[in-house]
Amino acid sequence: MKAIRKFRFDPDYAVPPGATLEETMEALGMTQRDLADRTGLTVQTLNRIFKGEQPISYETANKLELVTGTPAALWNNLEAQYREQLSKIDQARQMADNIIWLKSIPVKELSERKVIPAETDKGLVVREVLRFYGVSSVESWHTVWDEPAAAARRSPFLKSSPGPTSAWLRLGQLEAREIECAPYDKKRFSENLRLIRALTTKHPKEFVPEMRRLCAEAGVALALVPEIKGAPWSGAAEWITPTKAMILVNLRGRSEDKFWFSFFHEAGHILHDSKKETFIDDGKSYRDKPEEKRADDFAADILIPDIHNPAIKAVRSAGDLQKIAARLGICPGIVVGRHQYLTQKWTNFNGLKTKFVWVKESE
Question: What string of pLDDT tens digits covers the 363 residues of the chain?
């Protein structure tokens, strides 16, 4: 005997119980006016029921049983099936929209970073990604991350790549949330930035914990999150609460001068700019905006005041450059970066720059 293969039928439409009512009315030879008079319902109400715009209530089902002879249970069942099918159609539409949205999110990378569990079921993946962002729906995600009201508070970079950029920012937010900080103290933060500048001569194993401590005691959480493909940003600054700020940096470019400039650039945003905005920096674009130029000037001045530029530009040997760095109390790589910027010779003294790499906490 050959087995009969069965196929599941999931229609993408729903038939309102009003269609059955309309057929019943016609079979009984009633006009719509007759049915209205006999049930006590208005013609307008019947029209809405025929179109599925108004549900058949239990009370209406009982009236229809008396008028048409068709049991109230049948009308109630038809109504329930119709509403259930509408819900399935809406759910299917939402899932299709969700899967399209999911393609914009770096799901694979988030899974590899153990931020979300590895799942094959798209519905479960959507749920886990929503949990990661702390929102209840894709609509809520759009409201938080790329609706006009949100976009106005964020860098144009978020609009250009909302999925990867929002994921990187969210990773920073979650890390910053776990860092205990004193209430923000602008004066203390400004003073501690001078102490952090002196750490540029240290190894990352030494300067990272001390840098984080100095930021935290002034109300700023320093988050270090590896860059995500599609979000090539150097740093970001954002207020997590009215009394707690976040500076988020990565190792884009990997050289120490870029790392330190990015950090102090974001610190400039925290010190001088609005608490209502999120600033995202790629190290080069949007420099015509006043707040970005101000943050650049702040970072440049705190690292190397302009008065030293002529001597740095005139440097001809690695030894002379290292002497300037020693006098300034900063690492030679930062002086190299300034020299290259002033001369526009981007390979000069590259050997004096230290390259940073990400390592696991246990290493």
Answer: 444 444 344 566 688 999 999 999 999 999 999 999 999 999 999 999 999 999 999 999 999 999 999 999 999 999 999 898 888 777 667 777 788 899 999 999 999 999 999 888 887 888 899 999 999 888 899 888 875 444 434 555 555 678 898 999 999 999 999 999 999 999 999 999 999 999 999 999 999 999 999 999 999 999 999 988 888 788 899 999 999 999 999 887 678 999 999 999 999 999 998 888 888 876 665 567 888 889 999 999 999 999 999 999 999 999 999 999 999 999 999 999 999 999 999 999 999 999 988 776 544
Distance (Å, whole) CA 50 – CA 19:
6
Query: How many Cα atoms are found within 13 Å in the side-chain-facing hemisphere of 243?
Result: 6
Are 166 and 299 contained in the same domain? yes
- DSSP bridge pairs for 281: 235
Enclosing H/E stretch for 239: strand 235-241
Nearest to 226 by CA among 198, 248, 207, 211: 248
- Report yes or no on 344 lying in a domain: no
The number of distinct structural domains making up the chain is 3
Can you give the CATH number for the domain in which 98 is found? 1.10.260.40
Helix (H, G, I), strand (E, B) or coil at 31: coil
Query: What is the Cα gyration radius of the chain?
Result: 32
In a domain, 247, yes or no: yes
Residues 199 and 276 in one domain: yes
Cβ-proximal residues to 33 (8 Å cutoff; 6+ apart), any chain: 43
Assess whether 88 and 137 both reside in one domain.
no
- Give yes or no for a contact between 238 and 157, defined as CB atoms under 8 angstroms apart: no
Q: Print the domain residue range for 161.
A: 156-303
DSSP state letters, 93-125: HHHHHHHHHHTTS-HHHHHHTTSS-----HHHH
